[in-house]
Amino acid sequence: MGGWLLVQQRESGALSFNRTWAEYRNGFGSVDAKGKGEFWLGNQNLHLLTNQGETILKVQMEDWEGGVASAEYTVRVGSEVEGYQLHVSGYTGDAGDALTMPNSDMASYLSHSGMKFSTFDKDNDKWEESCAEMYGGGWWYNNCQAANLNGIYYKGTYDPEKNTPYEIENGVVWATYKPANYSLKTVRMFIRSAAF
């Protein structure tokens, strides 16, 4: 795979991503020999792997109409003591920069860069309530999100007023590619050394 290591995959909704801090730290799920399955490599592994030198993050996404897009960044994930803080910069791709939202006047509320990881049992976001509890997955929430690849898996576009308990946009979201109420069909996150 050209040096790329798969660190996250969603493709069926078979696995709940509404997990504890410990589960996100250690990782969960699996991928079979054919590359099928859903999983999270684990925040401790992400920290260790992204602190060996400059690391590239690639996000690949597919919508329900067969469209595909990707985004790449330089990435580093902090230690557990630092709350597995996300550092991303240098966006390239055709999905739009949903992790830093540079052109949005809401960037200070939506940017994920510099944010600590949050889960329903460990709230590190900037909102007075819990983004992870509200959106149903562990992520680098701000106040709260422009991207969330660990949200609730919905099959197809969904109507937040009918399909979610809070009437909010809590799907698998990359808001610069598809509207925030559009839940993506397939998402994958990969990392590799920039020196590869």
What is the CA-atom radius of gyration, in angstroms?
Answer: 15 Å
What number is the mean pLDDT? 93
- Secondary-structure element string: EHEEHEEEHHEHEE
**Total count of strands:** 9
What helical percentage do the residues reach? 10-25%
Strand content is 25-35%
| N-C termini distance | 12 Å
Shape: globular
Which spans have pLDDT < 50 for at least 5 consecutive residues? none
Verbal overview:
It is a single chain. The chain has 196 residues and is α+β, with helices and mostly antiparallel strands. It has 5 helices and 9 strands. The protein has helices spanning 21-26, 43-50, 107-110, 131-135, 160-163; strands at 5-10, 28-31, 37-40, 55-62, 68-77, 86-93, 147-148, 173-174, 186-193. A 7-stranded antiparallel sheet has the order 2-3-1-9-4-5-6. The longest helix is centred in the N-terminal third of the chain and has 8 residues, at 43-50. The protein starts with a strand and ends with a strand.
List its traits.
single chain; 196 residues; alpha+beta; seven-stranded antiparallel beta sheet; two-stranded antiparallel ribbon; 27% strand
In short:
This protein has 196 residues and is α+β, with helices and mostly antiparallel strands. The protein has helices at 21-26, 43-50, 107-110, 131-135, 160-163, and strands spanning 5-10, 28-31, 37-40, 55-62, 68-77, 86-93, 147-148, 173-174, 186-193.
